[in-house]
Amino acid sequence: MTQQAPHDDFVVFDRVQKSYDGEILVVKDLNLSIARGEFLTMLGPSGSGKTTCLMMLAGFETATHGDIRLGGNAINNIPPHKRGIGMVFQNYALFPHMTVAENLSFPLEVRNMGKAEREGKITRALDMVQMGAFGGRRPAQLSGGQQQRIALARALVFEPELVLMDEPLGALDKQLRETLQFEITRLAHNLGITVVYVTHDQTEALTMSDRVAVFDDGRIQQLASPDTLYERPENSFVAQFIGENNTLSGTVVELADGKATVRLDSGDVIATTAVNVSAAGDRTLVSVRPERVEYNVERMKPDAFRLQAEVLEFIYMGDIYRTRVRVAGNDDFIIKTRNAPDQRRLKPGETIEIGWLPEDCRALDA
Amino acid sequence: MADVTDATTARRAPTPDDAARLADSDQSGPMLAADGRPLKQSLQRALRREKLRALMLIAPLLLFVLVTFIAPIADMLFRSVENQIVGNTLPRTVEALADWNDDAEELPPEPVFRALFFDLFLAAEAKAHTRLGSRLNYETTGISSLFRSSGRRMDDVAEPFQDVLEQADPQFGDGAFWYRLMTGEGDADTSLLNDQRERLAALTREGMGGDIGFAPSAEIAALLPRAAREYSAFALFTARIDNDVVAEEDPWESVYVALALDLQDGGAERVQSYAGPGADALQAAAANADQLPVVDFREAFIEVDDGWGDRTNWETMKTYSPPFTSGYFLNSVDLQLTADGVEAREENQRIYVMLFQRTMFMSLVITFSCILLGYPVAWLLANLPMRTANLLMILVLLPFWTSLLVRTSAWKVLLQQQGVINDTLVWLGIVSDGGRLALINNQLGTIIAMTHILLPFMILPLYSVMKTIPPTYLRAAKSLGATNWTAFWRVYFPNSVPGIGAGSILVFILSIGYYITPELVGGTTGVFISNRIAYHISSSLNWGLAAALGTILLAAVLALYWVYDRMVGIDNVKLGG
Questions:
Q1: In whole angstroms, how large is the CA radius of gyration of chain A?
Q2: Do B1 and A107 lie within an 8 Å CB cutoff?
Q3: Taking a contact as any Cβ pair under 8 Å apart, which residues of chain A between 25 and 84 contact chain B?
Q4: Total domains present in chain A
Q5: How far is the C-alpha of B427 from the C-alpha of B295, rounded, in Å?
Q6: Both ends of chain A: CA-CA distance in Å?
């Protein structure tokens, strides 16, 4: 998946705005194209407008301005039940007075499907989520994970081309969440359906999606594949929101050829990759991922930029070491190193030399 | 399949339950606590204090409910079958009537009338005969006045005997002499006195125990059984009710009659050998025994009041003589208990079945109106933003803060023929001045006013149930392709049924026993069974019938509750949460 809008635009948000009270825009000028068969995640903190976008697509909220198109047709004025979009909710929204099979039968019944056909589809859908034996149960007799599988099966049983998921794994424990993450992506790819997935869990977004749209303040901050998002965040919000991130604030001294020289507030001058700075003299936040910082001098690349740092805290986490150091006046600078036989364990108070490559160091907006 | 359950259950942390199971499997005997006592016993001991404290907390309410709720209900259930008044007031008559064959076309025999004389005389002294008259009057009209007029004239029946005895020996006119005569010598007959104590206690409902300064001698009791009996009754009554000294009072006329009957009945020979106090006077009386009038009590009673010659009255007395009766219940369903068994009441006397049916029907109509009007309001309340919902809730609760009487009176003002609604309709030209609608003092009025009054009882449970239905259910249904109506009918409505159930039970049970509103706006066609019960409690004073009607009402409610439980399940009733 690339960053360019695909040719086959299945779902299109065209200059969509939304306001609930006529004073504040919850969604500001949203433009987004989703390809057929794509798994797109809307990621963002709460109140960023991601759920509102999903609800507008589902038809439960109307856009204040702009068009939403599905398969080329504007759907602004089509009621939710005619959109044919499957939906999975955070609290499962299984109907408690119906059995699992009746829940699955519901979308087929309202489509006036014959009994035999219904039963075939229900069996297939239940087998798909490995819940074939649970058709006669009531939702209340199932665990949270099982309920969410059923909710998933119900959203898929009528074979929609587009399925929306509103934080579907939010109420589950970590282990279960990971199992289901994998299962949902597998199902989506096998069935070739388009999925729009809303979450505030960045790990979920990174592991499941083809593309992630990071929302903040009613806007998409960056729309990109997970690796691009993580490794090449375009602004400091994305850098902070996705994964762990070290920031050092400073001023651009020189800007040329995609490289920016930045004087940190501590006085150190470092070489960075210019991403979101426009001219010398701009304030900037320099971002470095903790795992791209090295303190083992023998392993450092020759062109690595080096700085003195004081160890404040050293945490042994099993697979990695997590070290908090003071560097360039920043007390919260984190270094993550792999637990390897030749790796040195640090002690608080120790002064060390750390280094990173200029490519890993990005000058973003302040 | 297996991996699904694995994911959810297999990797969970061990729980105390597991530990218990583990321990259980190791031991064959019961689980033991750390100190070696059985675990169950240990647990019970630990919980006992908590239970005791909980009991203490509810004790005041429990006591209050027992005294003010359970006890009155039990009393009501008892009253609906209780009929001891006949046996208590006329014990001898009831006994004598048992032998009377009421199939034969004749009046009861002479002994019944004799027994009635003594019973009625005593009842009249205790002023209990009118009470009995009222009781029997519920069954056959006219008995009340029969008893009232007869009670007054028992003295007249007795008069001839008294005159003859006083002529035979003037000492018979002296109270002190009678006291000496009856006290006699030798052993006292305490069993006779105690019998009379019981009889009078039942009749007057007053304590008759303790020393009254008199006891009939056993010798006299054997010679003159009737006189001794009646004098003992007189003595008890004088000492306990009138609080006088027995020896200073002249005996009742009935004592003279008793003595005369004793003398006529072989007593004249028996007293010849008697040597105790007053033997001379007795022997003088015995010598004049042939001068004593031979009174036909049947004739005498019929002379006092024609009613005693009417078989119907006697049949009623016999039918209602047992201490318990099904008569009240039969009356409650428009039947009556007669000498020939259970019969339907006359056409023009049947009202209760119709009233029960009307009460049920109107309560159902009111319940359905409440559902129809309350459901949308409750839905709005549950789905509006909090601030607006609170305002609306105040409007719903407003009627609760107004007196019931004020609300009902307000409906009177609105609904009457010259009222606000009719005036408006006439002014708008919708109805003509002559054709004003009758909106009150009929069933319509009762239904309108009671629907309004009971509406909050429907809205509140509905609201609290709807509040718990997540809005995502409707969204999910719509996303699955259901239209608004299908989503509501197949998803939202079934989930709100527990609220409808709770509200309906509440409204129906409240309305089935409602009294004040039907009384005020129901006129004659819009009153409930409860109004009839109130009438019997406060106006006709037929408490037995009122109790029977109330019992039937209670049974009907319980039966409906049971049916509802079988059909919907009482677990499905939610008042909130």
A1: 24
A2: no
A3: 58-60, 79-84
A4: 2
A5: 80
A6: 29
Strand ranges for B270-424 from DSSP E: 335-338, 341-344
Q: Which of A1-10, A164-173, B33-42, B334-343 has the highest mean pLDDT?
A: A164-173
The model's pLDDT over B19-44, given as tens digits with 9 standing for 90+, comes to 455 555 555 567 777 777 888 888 88
Q: Which CATH number fits domain B353-572: 1.20.1540.10, 2.40.37.10, 3.30.420.40, 1.10.3720.10?
A: 1.10.3720.10
- Whether residue A2 is contained in a domain is answered as no
- According to DSSP, residue A320 is labeled E
Q: Which residue, B256, B243, B252, B184, is CA-closest to B215? A: B184
**Pairing between strand A162-166 and A85-88?**
parallel
Let me know: does A122 contact A101? Beta carbons within 8 Å: yes
DSSP state of B13: P
With contact defined as beta carbons under 8 Å apart, do B230 and B254 qualify? yes
Residue A34: CA atoms inside 13 Å, Cβ hemisphere, count? 30
Q: Are residues A145 and A280 in the same domain?
A: no
Q: Provide the residue range defining the domain that includes A260.
A: 244-365
Question: How far, in Å, are B231, B241, B256, B284 from residue B180 at the CA level?
Answer: 12, 22, 15, 16
| Residue ranges covered by each domain of chain B | 154-291, 353-572
A158 interface with B at CB cutoff 8 Å: yes
Structure confidence at residue A8 (pLDDT): 66
Q: Say how far apart CA A266 and CA B330 lie, in whole Å.
A: 104
Whole-structure pTM over 0.90, yes or no?
no
Q: Please list the residues that pair with B99 across neighbouring strands.
A: none
Residue B232 has φ and ψ, to the nearest 5°, of -60, -45
| H or E, element range at A145 | helix A144-157
Q: Residue B536 pairs with which residues in a beta bridge?
A: none
Percent of chain A having pLDDT more than 70? 98
The helix (run of H) or strand (run of E) holding residue B48 is helix B39-65
Backbone angles phi, psi at A285, to 5 degrees: -110, 120
pLDDT in tens, A181-221: 999 999 999 999 999 999 988 889 999 999 999 999 888 99
Burial of A366 (0-12, 13-18, 19+ CB in 10 A): middle
Nearest CA in chain A to B1: A130
Chain A residues within an 8 Å CB radius of B470: 91, 93
Sheet (strand A65-70) strand order: A25-35, A9-19, A65-70, A73-74
Asked whether residue A329 is assigned to any structural domain, the reply reads: yes
Q: Residue A271: which residues within 8 A CB-CB, separation 6 or more?
A: A259, A260, A261, A262, A305, A358, A361
Query: Which residues of chain A make contact with B477, given a CB cutoff of 8 A?
Result: 95, 106
For residues B540-548, average pLDDT? 91
Minimum-distance CB partner of A130 among B1, B477, B491 = B1
Give the C-alpha separation, B159 to B166, whole Å.
11
Asked if residue A99 belongs to a domain, the reply is yes
pLDDT band at B572 (very low <50, low <70, confident <90, very high): low
3-state secondary structure of B242: coil
B571 CA: distance to closest CA in chain A (Å)? 14
Could you tell me the two tokens for A151? 């909710």
Q: Which residues does chain A have within 8 Å of residue B472's beta carbon, measured at their own beta carbons?
A: 89, 91, 93
Same domain, A226 and A317: no
Q: Please tell me the distance in Å from B557's CA to the nearest CA on chain A.
A: 28
